[in-house]
């Protein structure tokens, strides 16, 4: 019996096939239910007791070898088939979905580009600031409400360390370091101690602008803002300046643009006024120039500051500021292809 097994084993080891059909024939011949290997199991009954262990082991080894051999032959044909046409190497790849730019980044880039065309460069300052750059250098009196804990995030250990509440702080830093002419914008993230709602968030983004040189006038400010508004909202956009107050500008104004949704006729976005408020601006207060080391007798300047969330909401008709920070792909994918 052992000889018979050995003989079959040699035979199986030497097997070869030139087609898939031949492999199938071999499978039937050796390992199907009625195959030669299976017959050995039937003959096993007649093996004398003392040989049973050795013969049983040999049959099992043979069976495994036979299975492996047939599988090996089968696979060799399957692989060959794939190489010959099963895999089309010229087929286009599965497209991979790319990420999209965040709507706030899209609008920030657009604003930066508009001002770049007017010769404004970009500068940035720290988000963790000190009282001087956020308040004192900008002419805020010591008791100004913006300094209150209700509005500003302070660090408990050190009252001089705070999260900036506006990007106007970068104005102070730039003026301290550079003499005019200065023509730059400062995009960045700001923080206010506010309850989160559809209209307000404790973290948001602003872009600040600053222009300081000899003979800079309010007319320059107005023309710059008109150009900016028409580039951003369309060529038929009108602007309107309303007198306002900021500690760091004198005179100060708030600027409205004609509502781009109803064209100024009145709709629920502009609350039927035809106008949308988008920024604060003014002539840099001479005190601020002097505090930052710029001679206010020689130089004048203008400044402005706007919230990127608000402008993005107006531009795209977004109703809730929280969408910007939730990273819901269903929201973000709507900006696919926009740069
Ligand atoms: N910093 C102001 C704010 O956060 C915005 C602002 C108003 C900036 C007038 C200016 C400006 O530069 O001139 O509300």
TrEMBL record:
Top-level division of the source organism's lineage: Bacteria
Keywords linked to the UniProt accession: Aminoacyl-tRNA synthetase, ATP-binding, Cytoplasm, Ligase, Magnesium, Metal-binding, Nucleotide-binding, Protein biosynthesis
CDD domains registered for this protein in UniProt: PheRS_alpha_core
InterPro entries: aa-tRNA-synth_II, aa-tRNA-synth_II/BPL/LPL, Phe-tRNA-synth_IIc_asu, Phe-tRNA_ligase_II_N, Phe_tRNA_ligase_alpha1_bac, Phenylalanyl-tRNA_Synthase, tRNA-bd_arm
Region annotated Disordered, chain positions: 77-97
Domain Aminoacyl-transfer RNA synthetases class-II family profile: 107-334
Cofactor annotation: Mg(2+)
Record EC number: 6.1.1.20
Gene3D superfamilies xref list: Bira Bifunctional Protein, Domain 2
Gene Ontology molecular function terms on file: ATP binding; magnesium ion binding; phenylalanine-tRNA ligase activity; tRNA binding
UniProt record, GO biological process: phenylalanyl-tRNA aminoacylation
Catalytic activity: tRNA(Phe) + L-phenylalanine + ATP = L-phenylalanyl-tRNA(Phe) + AMP + diphosphate + H(+)
Self-association and partners: Tetramer of two alpha and two beta subunits.
Protein name: Phenylalanine--tRNA ligase alpha subunit
Species per Swiss-Prot/TrEMBL record: Sunxiuqinia dokdonensis
Encoding gene, per UniProt annotation: pheS
